[in-house]
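TICKET: design request
STATUS: open
ATTACHED STRUCTURE:
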């Protein structure tokens, strides 16, 4: 197999993997924890893939809602994104952000939902 073909195969596999919802994070608009972090996304969105991939390397607890599979979620996203279905849209304790960076999202968690910060509630000096 040529190196170019190998790179294409790996890229294709990563594209499929990053587009799949995580079974442990998948939720509907009604079932999502709106007091926590909810990531609204849609398949094929490169910005969603980027944010969701980066969040997988954190220990942040969050739910994912596919707006193409949930009309209520799509309506919510339109309500906070000037009538557009702009994703990723993320809510942190009910406060919406459209297309946030990972850093901006984690800062919002520290500000509005510090109990969700990875390692929150641990005793001083306690490690994972």
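STATUS: resolved
RESOLUTION: sequence designed for all positions
ATTACHED SEQUENCE:
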């Amino acid at each position: 197999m040529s190196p170019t073909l190998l790179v294409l195969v790996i890229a294709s596999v990563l594209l499929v993997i990053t587009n799949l919802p995580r079974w442990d994070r998948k939720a509907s608009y009604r079932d999502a924890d709106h007091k926590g972090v909810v990531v609204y996304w849609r398949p094929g969105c490169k910005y969603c893939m980027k944010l969701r991939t980066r969040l997988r390397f954190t220990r942040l607890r969050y739910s994912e809602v596919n707006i193409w599979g949930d009309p209520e979620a799509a309506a919510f996203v339109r309500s906070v994104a000037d009538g557009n279905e702009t994703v990723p849209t993320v809510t942190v304790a009910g406060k919406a952000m459209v297309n946030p960076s990972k850093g901006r999202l984690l800062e919002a968690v520290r500000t509005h939902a510090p109990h969700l910060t990875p390692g929150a509630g641990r005793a001083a000096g306690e490690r994972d």
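CLOSING REMARK: The beta strands are 37-41, 63-66, 89-92, 95-98. Helices lie at 3-19, 46-55, 71-80, 102-112.
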